[in-house]
Amino acid sequence: MEKLRQMLNPRPNGFEAFKQKITEWENSLPEAEKQAARTHREQMRKKFHEEFLKRDIPGVSAAGMAKLREIMSTPPNGREEFKQRMDTWVSGLSPADKAAAEAHR
Q1: Could you identify which of 19, 49, 58, 102 might form a hypothetical disulfide with 75, taking C-beta atoms 3.0 to 4.6 angstroms apart as the criterion?
Q2: Angle in degrees, 0-180, between the axes of helices 79-91 and 95-104, rounded to the nearest 10
Q3: Which ranges of the sequence are coiled-coil (predicted)?
Q4: How far is 102 from 96, CA to CA, in rounded Å?
C-alpha cells in the first residue's frame, strides 16, 4: 500500500492517468496480491455503480431516471461504454429532462 501511496503522490491528472498508475501498481505486485487488488477494484467498481443508481439527477423526471436505471442495469465495461450509455440515455429524454441532464454533466 505504501508503494501505491507514493505512486499516487502527486495525484495523477485525470481518470486515465489515475487508472494507469493503479494498473502499474497492480502489475508490480506478487501474483496472489495482484489478484486480491484486482478483486478489490472490481468490488469498488460495483459499489460505485450501485451508489450511482441510487442517486437522482436534479431536474430529471422520475420517468427519465427510470430510463437511466434501465440502461445502466448492468455495470458498463469501462469509461467509454459508460459515456456511450449516457449519450444514449440523454438523446431519448424530453427537452426539459435533457437540459437538466446536460447541466448535471
Answers
A1: 49
A2: 150
A3: 15-42
A4: 10
Nearest of 80, 82, 86 to residue 102 by alpha carbon: 86
CA distance 43 to 57: 24
| Average pLDDT value for the chain | 88
Ordered alpha helix ranges (H), 1-105: 2-7, 15-28, 31-54, 62-71, 79-91, 95-104
**Residues contacting residue 38 through CB under 8 Å, at least 6 positions apart:** 26
Q: Taking the alpha carbons of 91, 92, 98, 100 in that order, is the dihedral positive or negative?
A: negative
Same domain, 67 and 48: no
Q: What's this model's pTM, rounded to 2 decimal places?
A: 0.64
Domain final residue pick, 17, 35, 55: 55
Residues with Cβ < 8 Å from 99, sequence gap 6 or more? 59
pLDDT at 11 (0 to 100) = 80
pLDDT under 70 in the chain at which residues?
Answer: none
